[in-house]
Amino acid sequence: MSSRSDWLIASQEPRLHVRAPADHTLGDLAADFASAYGLTPDPWQRLVLDDWLAERGGRWAALTCGLAVPRQNGKNALLEVRELFGMVGRGEKILHTAHEVKTAQKHFRRLKHFFGQKADDPGAKYPELNALVETVRNVNGQEAIFLKNGASVEVVARSKNSGRGFTVDVLVLDEAQELGDDALEALMPTTSAAPLGNPQWIYTGTPPAPFAQGEVFTRTRADALSEKPKRITWAEWSVATNADIDSRQDWHLTNPGLASGRLQIDVIEGERGRYSPDGFARERLGWWVTDMGVDGPFPSGTWAAGVDATSRIAPDSRRAFGLDVSWDRSTGYIVGVGLREDGAAHVEMAMQASGTHWIVAWLTDPKRVARFGGKVPVVAQGRGGPVASLLDDLRAHESIDLIEWQGSDLGAASGVLYDAVVGGRLFHPPWPALDLAAATARTKPLGDGWGWDRRKSPNDAAPLVATTGAVWHLLRPIEAPARSAYDSGSRLMVLD
Hints:
By secondary structure, the protein is of the alpha/beta class. The chain has 2 domains: 2-283, P-loop containing nucleotide triphosphate hydrolases (Rossmann fold, 3-Layer(aba) Sandwich), CATH 3.40.50; 302-475, Nucleotidyltransferase, domain 5 (2-Layer Sandwich). The chain contains 17 helices and 21 strands. The protein has helices at residues 27-35, 43-52, 75-90, 101-115, 127-130, 181-187, 215-224, 248-254, 265-274, 277-283, 302-305, 359-363, 366-371, 391-395, 410-422, 432-440, 462-475, and strands spanning 2-3, 16-18, 24-25, 54-56, 59-60, 64-68, 93-98, 133-137, 144-147, 152-157, 170-173, 200-205, 232-236, 319-325, 331-339, 345-354, 376-381, 400-405, 426-427, 443-446, 449-452. The strands form 4 sheets. Strands 1-2-13-6-12-11-7-10-9-8 form a 10-stranded mixed beta sheet, sandwiched between helices. Helix 1 crosses helix 3 (75-90), helix 2 (43-52) packs across helix 3 (75-90) and helix 15 (410-422) crosses helix 17 (462-475). The radius of gyration is 25 Å and the shape is globular.
């Protein structure tokens, strides 16, 4: 891994760069091929192509390819080069996915610019490419181009079922900042039996926003930047945490498209006036929430020390879900907690989605209930918290074991969480919403202790509140009746 510390290096070089060991690369062939059709890569795009198309021992050197670059710099053109070369030069079957339908359709239209609108298209701009076409499928949601050499590109918007029916060599995951585990799990099997026996996964996007389901992209980045990355390449144009967002130099260093004119400086100036400081830093300067150098109420570095992409709950651990919702009820969060083999607490995102309408159905899903032996333990704040309106519905289900904690428990619960973090007994895979909440949450005094102040926290504290309650339940040393104004009869339950 190389990390650029000299800010005078040209923007065509990424700040963070990880390359997989390789024998040679086909990147130059791909660049020359695309250039013949008017798609000439910039130097930074050639660098990334060299990484993606590097070979070792006759296979791709990198199974996983990651690119994080601010918008409008030419990321989509880079994907077009990779897909054109893969189809024509390698005979690959490619599945291109995006978060939004409009993004997927735009990419498909760009590919038709090269191959034509249909087979034997008299108006095709490049007749020699059109001559390779067997068929073009224009059905909404099923757009595809199939070539006579067996290659294909199919373009879809992601969903939890979007991977069904596909068997491909290359899986492209564009807009990866909005890629959740459910979508990934549906798509990853598409390459399990890659026709050419040489699969590749390509993740491209920008740093996830606090409320985006960006855990996959964040985890991929963490894997790439770990001490021993395996068959992975990562290129990232970004600023460090302490960068000056008004520095024109940093604007140029993080936006390689400015060098070629793909992106204009006046566009960036306009964005600076419209975006919030955090939004501008993230969207235009590639700033990652997980790189923040502050830890809220936790001593410096202790929360970040617990970020571990490899952490896992022990198979025989007791487990529970923590539940909370935003103060304005715009987002619901469910965390899963359990104990690792070493006895430390593990926290991970179980579900995050807009609104609250989905929460009860998700928790009472029959398959989930069966995995918990008929009773799903759910830890939620009772009277006074924004989740309180859901509690009656949860109590009505025999399959839910509701563990309520009150405002009076917040001081003790916050202390349990604090001690676990400072003592190195809390681990969690990267999750932008939780990491940001932990880095920026405000506190308020509660008797001799303190708790989270939802209203004064600059970012949504709900994921941290859900984690606090769940960890408090998990690490309490004794069983005790759950204190509830409703006397639901629930008890703190040991699941082992």
